[in-house]
Write a structure and sequence with these properties.
Elements lengths: L1 E6 L7 H10 L7 E4 L12 E8 L13 E9 L7 H4 L5 H6 L3 E3 L2 H9 L4 E3 L18 E4 L8 H8 L11 E4 L10 H17 L2 E4 L2 H10 L3 E5 L21 E4 L10 H8 L26 H16 L2
Parallel strand pairs: 1-2, 1-3, 3-4, 5-6, 7-8, 7-9, 9-10, 10-11
């Protein structure tokens, strides 16, 4: 039997490869990388057991997977934000999903959508919760990993980022992005970059992020992490539909701690006209010397996911 995981040749988010690395580490080997956006095309005539985790909304017309793929749908996300759910959950696919079900859903919003459409499903959480820390020592790095979303202006982000860490600790701050700058990177280099991110997260003292696929891996790696739930408001997309059932897993900092940080017209105008300049931001309420350990209730989800992948491997 051959094994495969999803690849993301066109993605700008390195968190995508982080998700696939989690799948890789649970398989006995990886024989094929299957392009998420062309998953309907055969990469071989051999039968492939494919761990299908992640978001499949970029090109929903290229769905379902090719007929030589035996999928394990786990940590799957379906969104209403760009109407892709109408294609991913069209009536003629219900039998297909139930053939390979029950479907492991990354979030409760996806679970509700699938069940509403007559598809057997369960809440798996995210597969990155199964990652293990391969490093024994930590450093003193305070990582700010895309701490504010890009729908805030660059000036506003810089203003906030410069104040959320106390002056005493700012020499330890490293600003990291999961947003890919080299879109022409090879598939292999993309995975190397993601492995390097995981190493950074594994060794850090504390991580502050607005990236769900930074926060979730940090939980699994035992790195104290704080998720800034701010800026998830958009004219075109409801970005919050990814979070139901996940925000309860880690410590969350809401946007009300930021001056003029909400989606209101008043706050939007204040950001646009730089009226926040006279405001002061208190450093985030974190024990910067000894950050509190993460909550541990994610571990039950991780255990179940490992068991499901093991069963998938052993199933003939």
């Amino acid at each position: 039997m051959k094994y495969g995981v999803i690849s993301y040749p066109g993605s700008i988010n390195m968190g995508d490869e982080v998700q696939s690395i989690a799948a890789m580490r649970l398989l006995p080997r990886v024989d094929y990388l299957v392009d998420r956006d062309n998953i309907h095309k055969k990469v071989t005539d051999e039968v492939i057991k494919l761990v299908c985790n992640g978001w499949f909304a970029e090109k929903p017309l290229n769905w379902p997977p090719a007929d030589n793929i035996l999928p394990l749908f786990i940590s799957m996300h379906v969104t209403r934000s760009n109407q892709s759910y109408k294609l991913l959950l069209r009536d003629n696919l219900t039998d297909y999903y139930n053939r390979f079900g029950p479907i492991g859903c990354r979030d409760l919003g996806t679970l509700k959508l699938l069940k509403k459409n007559g598809i057997e499903a369960w809440f798996s959480g995210d597969l990155t919760l199964t990652l293990e820390n391969r490093y024994s020592e930590r450093n003193n790095d305070i990582l700010l990993v895309d701490p504010l979303r890009y729908n805030y202006t660059r000036k506003y982000r810089d203003f906030v980022i410069n104040q959320i860490v106390p002056k005493k600790y700012r020499d330890a701050v490293k600003i990291i992005t999961q947003r890919r700058t080299n879109l022409n990177a090879s598939v292999q280099d993309r995975f190397i970059d993601a492995e390097n991110l995981i190493e950074l997260y594994s060794k850090a003292k504390v991580v502050i992020t607005s990236r769900i696929h930074c926060a979730l891996p940090c939980l699994a790696l035992g790195t104290p992490v704080y998720f800034i739930n701010a800026g998830y408001h958009s004219t075109y997309f409801n970005l919050n539909d990814r979070f139901e059932g996940l925000l309860e897993l880690f410590r969350v900092i809401e946007e009300n701690v930021l001056p003029f940080g909400s989606k209101s017209i008043k706050d939007f105008g204040a950001r646009f006209f730089n009226l926040y300049r006279g405001s002061k931001i208190k450093p985030l309420p974190i024990d910067w010397d000894n950050p509190d350990p993460n909550p541990f209730h994610f571990k039950d989800l991780a255990t179940i996911q490992r068991e499901r992948v093991k069963d998938f491997i052993n199933k003939t």
